[in-house]
Amino acid sequence: MNRFKVVLITGLVVGTATAAIGPLARSQDTPSVARASFQPNGNLTLPVGYRHWVHIGTRYKPIGINILDGLPTKTPEILNAYVEPSAMAAFEKTGRWADGTQIVKEFSAIRTGPGCDEKSWVCQSPLGAGIFEDHYIGLGMMVKDLKRFPDAPGHWGYFSFGHKPLPYDRVAALRPLAKCAACHVKLASGTDYVIRQAHLGLQKSFDEGQ
Ligand code: HEC
Predict the structure, then answer these.
(1) For 65-102, b where at least 16 C-beta lie within 10 A, e where not — what string?
(2) By CB neighbour count within 10 A (0-12 exposed, 13-18 middle, 19+ buried), where does 140 fall?
(3) Ligand 1 centroid, distance to 81 Cα (angstroms)
(4) Atom nearest to 140 CA in ligand 1
(5) Which of 1, 53, 190, 210 counts the highest number of beta carbons within 10 A?
C-alpha cells in the first residue's frame, strides 16, 4: 500500500467515525424531554403530578387582574411555577428550553377571615403570624412544541385549566396569542418568552447553596 492510499484510508475511517459520533454528540447536547399529553383534537390534558416537578419560584400578587380569566381578584393570590424535571435538566445542561418543555403556573388563594388583617393579609395563628396559602385556585401552562405550534413565538402554546377551586378542567384548548403570548413576547423575548427574571430558581447557579 503506498503512502497516498494509507492517508486516504485513514481519512475515510476518521471521517466515518466522526460522522457516526456526530449525531450522537448532538443528541446529548439537546437531551430529549418528556412530552405533554395532547388529545386528538389538539387540546392539552391536565398533567399528573406537576406539584412534584421542579419548583422555580413563588410570587405574591396583590389584588388585580388574574391572567387566566382576565377578571379582578377579590384577594391577593400566590403563584407557584414548576418545570417538568427532564426539561429542567435539559435547560441546566444547555441553557435553552428544549422542544417539549412544560411549565406550569399554579395559583392559590390566601387565607382570609377571622385573625387576618385585610390590608396586610397577615394572619395570626397558633403557628405564628403569616400570609398563608389557603386553597388552590387556578392553573396555567406553557408547552414548547415545534410541530404543534410552528408559527408561535418560541413555539410555545399557552393553556388555562381554569381560575377556580379544584377540580380544574381536565383538558384545555390552546389560548389565542393575544390572551397569553402577547404579554410574554413583550416582557421576555430575550429569554425565549419565559419570564426568567421573575423566578429565583432560574437565576444564577442551579447547584444548591451556590
Ligand atoms: C399581563 C401579562 C401576562 C399575561 C397576559 C400572561 N402572562 Fe404568564 N407570566 C407573566 C409574568 C410577569 C410571569 C412571571 C411571574 C409570574 O409567575 O407571574 C408569567 C409567568 C408565566 C408562567 C411561568 C413561566 C414563565 O414564563 O415565567 C407560565 C406557565 C405562564 N405565565 C402562563 C401564562 C398563560 C397560560 C397565560 C394566558 C392564560 C399567561 N401566562 C398570560 C405575565 C403574563
Answers:
(1) ebbbeeeebeeebbbbbbbbebbbbbbeeeeebbbbbb
(2) buried
(3) 10
(4) 35
(5) 53
Can you tell me the mean pLDDT for 115-137?
A: 96
In single-letter form, the type of residue at position 54 comes to V
Q: Which of 114, 149, 144, 112 is nearest to 131 (CA)?
A: 112
Residue 17 has pLDDT above 70, yes or no: no
**pLDDT confidence of residue 30:** 64
d(C-alpha 204, C-alpha 109), whole Å: 30
% of the chain surpassing 90 pLDDT = 81
Is any ligand 1 atom within 6 A of the Cβ of residue 78?
no
- With a 6 Å cutoff on the Cβ, whether 93 touches ligand 1 is no
**Which ligand 1 atom is the nearest neighbour of the CA of 158?**
35
pLDDT, position 99:
98
Q: What pLDDT was estimated at residue 2?
A: 47
CA of 179 to the centre of ligand 1 (A): 10
Determine if residue 121 is left, alpha or beta; phi over 0 gives left, psi from -120 to 50 gives alpha, anything else beta: left
In this structure, the residue with its CA closest to atom 5 of ligand 1 is: 180
Tell me how far CA of residue 117 lies from CA of 107, 113, 136, 194, in angstroms.
Answer: 21, 8, 21, 34
